[in-house]
Design brief:
Blueprint (H helix, E strand, L loop, with lengths): L7 E8 L2 H11 L3 E8 L2 E10 L8 E6 L12 E9 L4 H10 L5 E5 L2 E7 L5 E6 L21 E8 L3 H10 L4 E6 L2 E5 L7 E5 L13 E8 L2 H13 L8 E2 L4 E6 L5 E6 L27 H7 L13
Parallel strand pairs: 1-4, 5-8, 9-12, 13-16
Antiparallel strand pairs: 1-13, 2-3, 3-4, 5-9, 6-7, 7-8, 10-11, 11-12, 14-15, 15-16
Length: about 325
């Protein structure tokens, strides 16, 4: 059996403050909050999903805001940079926008592309690259028009404690194609239009630790639950220990940790975020799975207030 993922499904990170996160990812970066729910394993904590107009696979960055969580350390066994992609001519707009919000950034080159690298308020490492490939977002918010908006993920930079083993997993388990090397990074390509170019730091990285400002896991795409069952069998055959399939309401998921320490998830494209809210009001209400509904009022009381708002700089 051989398998191949289309690319990144979503990336999930730890942050501290829910409102500050919403202000940054919606207010500054112009992403849409497509789902406001809870961490099913820690219902006192939000799980916030930001993406394009519907949070399509390959566009969603998600957050667990632990108000009193420890500060993380970025290092081996993590996603080092989460890469957003914007339309081909949009990079000057984003340079101006980051400057407008007093966000320091560095302009770097790799694989004959220009990247803007910067950090969010918790220290999560982000970058923006412009490419023609991939559908434009249809969402506009604040000062970000749809024709300049983030399309979704361009890919990611992985930090590994065993990079050769990580790269082998990308190539021979996930089915990515090895493309080349530049400045100590090895590039792999998946066939999807978004979240399809993944770079691995070829140097062995010292172990990081989870906490605010770090990525918890990176999820890869699969079509549906039948295909996911096949993935689970395949991953097991390759010597990994995937979890049972977990119902995340908007997709189902399996998880396994690859040999370089990075937590991988394989998530289904369906059913998506419109399963329990109409398009017009995505992200507007706290959505709970059925098993938490009896405790809705108690859960709501334990969560901080949260609103999506246009920031002062855009008024």
């Amino acid at each position: 059996m051989t398998k191949q993922t289309a690319g990144i499904h979503h990336i999930t990170a730890f942050v501290r403050n829910a409102q500050a996160t919403a202000d940054y990812y919606a207010g500054v970066l112009g992403l849409r909050l497509v789902k406001k729910t809870i961490n099913f394993d820690a219902p006192e904590v939000y799980h916030l999903y930001f993406g394009n107009e519907v949070g399509s696979p390959g566009t969603a960055i998600t957050f667990f805001p632990f108000e009193n969580g420890r500060k993380g350390l970025i290092g081996g066994g993590q996603v080092g940079f989460s890469t957003f992609v914007v339309p081909q001519d949009a990079l000057p707009f984003w340079e101006e926008r980051l400057t407008k919000f007093s966000i320091s950034f560095e302009r770097i080159q790799r694989f004959e592309e220009t990247y803007l690298q910067f950090k969010d308020r918790d220290g999560l490492q982000l970058e923006i690259v412009a490419r023609e490939q991939g559908p434009n977002s249809k969402w506009s918010f604040g000062g970000v028009p749809a024709d300049k908006a983030i399309k979704g993920f361009g890919g990611a930079v992985l930090y590994s404690m065993a990079p050769e083993k990580t790269m082998r997993t990308l190539e021979h388990v996930l089915g990515l194609e090895r493309m080349g090397e530049d400045q100590g990074l090895v590039r792999f390509r998946a066939p999807g239009e978004l979240g399809n170019l993944v770079d691995v730091n070829a140097a062995v990285m010292d172990r990081g630790h989870g906490g605010s400002g770090t990525v918890h896991h990176i999820a890869w795409r699969t079509k549906d639950t039948e295909d996911q069952e096949n993935w689970r069998s395949f991953v097991t055959e390759q010597g990994f220990q995937p979890t049972p399939i977990a119902d995340r309401q908007y997709f189902t998921a399996i998880y396994f940790r690859e040999a370089g320490g990075i937590l991988f998830e394989i998530a289904t494209d369906s059913p998506g975020f419109e399963r329990d809210e109409p398009f017009e009001s995505l992200g507007g209400k706290l959505m709970l799975p059925n098993w938490f509904e009896p405790n809705r009022e108690q859960i709501k009381q334990g969560l901080p207030p949260l609103e999506i708002r246009v920031l002062e700089e855009d008024l």
